[in-house]
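tool=predict chain=A
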Amino acid sequence: MNITILGTGITGLSTCLELAGYGHSITCIGYDELAVARAKKIFYCSRCGNKITATTNLKSEISKSGILYIAAETPRGLYSDMDISDIVKGLKAAATYMVGYTLIVIANSVPHGTCDIAKTFVQNNLLSKCSDYDIVKIENCSNSQINPGQKLLKISNVTAKSKGIIEQVYQSCNCILEFEICKSVTAGAI
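tool=predict ok
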């Protein structure tokens, strides 16, 4: 599968390496050339480097991929609340170039409800640019309590369509996928 990852910080780089390790072709997108150059060096030294490219060209890459991971950093604010402005910035930049159905994956330890905030933002600001999408959140929970040593991924805000895609992405991963089905009406396919 072709997957685009927006973010060259620790979350973006580790997500690129993980998904490339599962056999996917990954494009990592950064906002500046210095971050992209650093990412290219890291990917070159990895065992999966031939499956990953890094660029600042958001426009050409978003339209090639039906899966977009937004791996933005979410620093804590003064009152321990997380700043999700980089996630919103990523959504705003990517939505302009999304073609057809796009699964948007928020890959970070963001607060509960971030997917709803992201959907509201897209509906209120970007709906004329993108109308067929789902937004899910993936949380890496380290080891499963059921089977210690096996990775557990919690995926929230899932629709039937996004669940099938996530299962394909992680089919070669020895991990447990725990899905939380979306309780509200999906913003996609309007």
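The longest strand covers residues 133-143. Strands lie at 2-6, 25-29, 52-55, 67-70, 102-107, 133-143, 151-158, 175-181.
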